Amino acid sequence: MKEGIHPKYVEAVVRCACGETFTTRSTKPEIHLEICSKCHPFFTGKQKLVDTAGRVERFQRKYAGRKPGNK
C-alpha cells in the first residue's frame, strides 16, 4: 500500500436523534443519525412516522377524499 494516501481510521462516536450513542470505528470522529436500531420501527415493532419537510401531510392532502381505484 502507498504511504500517505489513506485516511486515518479512528474511533468514532455515533449519536442518534433519539439520544442513543455508541462507538465504532470510521474515518470521521463523529457521526449523527436520524434513526438507529433502538428507534427504527423494523427493530422496535412500533409504527413511527418520520416526517421530513411535511411530506406526510402533503401526501395526505393530495390523496384526501379519493376512493381506491380512481385516478
Structure explained in plain terms:
This protein has 71 residues and is α+β, with helices and mostly antiparallel strands. It has one domain: Rhinovirus 14, subunit 4 (Irregular). Helix content is 18%, strand content 24%. It has two helices and three strands, in the order βββαα. A three-stranded mixed beta sheet has the order 2-1-3, with no helix packed on it. Strand 1 and strand 2 form a beta hairpin. The chain is elongated. The chain starts with 9 loop residues before the first strand and ends in an 8-residue tail after the last helix.
**Quick check: average pLDDT?**
82
Sheet with most strands: strand arrangement = 2-1-3
Strand content: 15-25%
Tally the structural domains: 1
Per the CATH scheme, the topology name is Rhinovirus 14, subunit 4
Contiguous uncertain segments of 5+ residues: none
What is the number of helices? 2
Assigned CATH class: Few Secondary Structures
**Helical content (DSSP H or I, runs of 4+):** 10-25%
Cα-based radius of gyration, to the nearest Å: 20 Å
Major sheet details: 3 strands, mixed
- What distance separates the N and C termini? 59 Å
The global form is elongated
Structural class of the helix and strand makeup?
alpha+beta
Write the layout of secondary structure elements.
Elements: E1 10-16, E2 21-26, E3 30-33, H1 41-44, H2 55-63
Parallel strand pairs: 1-3
Antiparallel strand pairs: 1-2
